[in-house]
């Protein structure tokens, strides 16, 4: 019989599992939909989420919104949990396709008012040549989640409870204390 763990948030759950079952798989992503696996353990997820939270804390305050601009995969999962670990609200968006216009992304940024976007280096390389024509996107702090150099050991747990907002598909009407 499995031990019952009392967790009131997803952060509590991952922290508990990272401590009690660090090598157990937390997520398996099938790149080809069938067999090409990427595997992440609870320890891996915890360390990466902490590192992203430390990086986010340099540019955000708890309750701020943060754009997650990733393709499906483990980097998306880590970015989402990084937002939870930082106490910020994740605003998930699909990256624009190569020839797609950026007005949809502009509109989301205009409504959600994030200061920061989490993405991969490849997606950022595709977007950045268009920033001059899209000042809302240019003015975001873009964090390449594949190359975060913040130490996960510097993470400070935010104040979270069962009423804390984890993500939103609608504008988040909060203002940062950091600018």
What would you note in describing this structure?
32% of the residues are buried. The protein has a four-stranded parallel β-sheet with strand order 4-3-5-6, with helices on both faces. The protein has six helices and six strands. With 179 residues, it is an alpha/beta fold. The longest helix is centred in the first third of the chain and has 16 residues. The chain has a domain of 106 residues: Rossmann fold (3-Layer(aba) Sandwich), CATH 3.40.50.
Classified by CATH, the class of the domain at 49-154 is: Alpha Beta
Mean pLDDT, all residues: 84
Spatial order of strands in the largest sheet:
4-3-5-6
Number of helices: 6
Query: What is the name of the CATH topology of the domain at 49-154?
Result: Rossmann fold
- Gross CATH architecture of the domain at 49-154: 3-Layer(aba) Sandwich
Shape designation: globular
Question: Percentage of helical residues?
Answer: 25-40%
Helix/strand class:
alpha/beta
Number of strands: 6
Task: Name the helix and strand elements from N-terminus to C-terminus, one letter apiece.
Answer: HEEHEHEHEHHE
Low-confidence stretches: 171-179
């Amino acid at each position: 019989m499995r031990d019952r763990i009392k967790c009131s948030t997803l952060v509590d759950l991952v922290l508990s599992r990272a401590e009690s079952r660090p090598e157990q798989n937390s997520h398996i992503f099938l790149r080809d939909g069938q067999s090409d696996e990427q595997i992440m353990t609870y320890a891996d997820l915890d360390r990466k989420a902490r590192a992203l939270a430390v990086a986010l804390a340099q540019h955000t305050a708890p309750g701020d919104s943060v754009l997650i601009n990733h393709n499906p995969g483990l980097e998306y999962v880590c970015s989402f949990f990084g937002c939870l670990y930082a106490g910020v609200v994740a605003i998930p968006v699909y990256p624009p396709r190569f020839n797609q216009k950026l007005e949809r992304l502009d509109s989301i940024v205009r409504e959600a008012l994030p200061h920061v976007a989490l993405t991969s280096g490849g997606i950022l390389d595709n977007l950045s040549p268009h920033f001059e024509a899209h000042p809302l996107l240019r003015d975001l702090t873009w964090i390449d989640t594949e190359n975060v150099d913040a130490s996960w050991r510097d993470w400070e747990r935010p104040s979270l409870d069962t009423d804390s907002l984890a993500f939103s598909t609608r504008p988040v009407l909060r203002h940062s204390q950091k600018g």
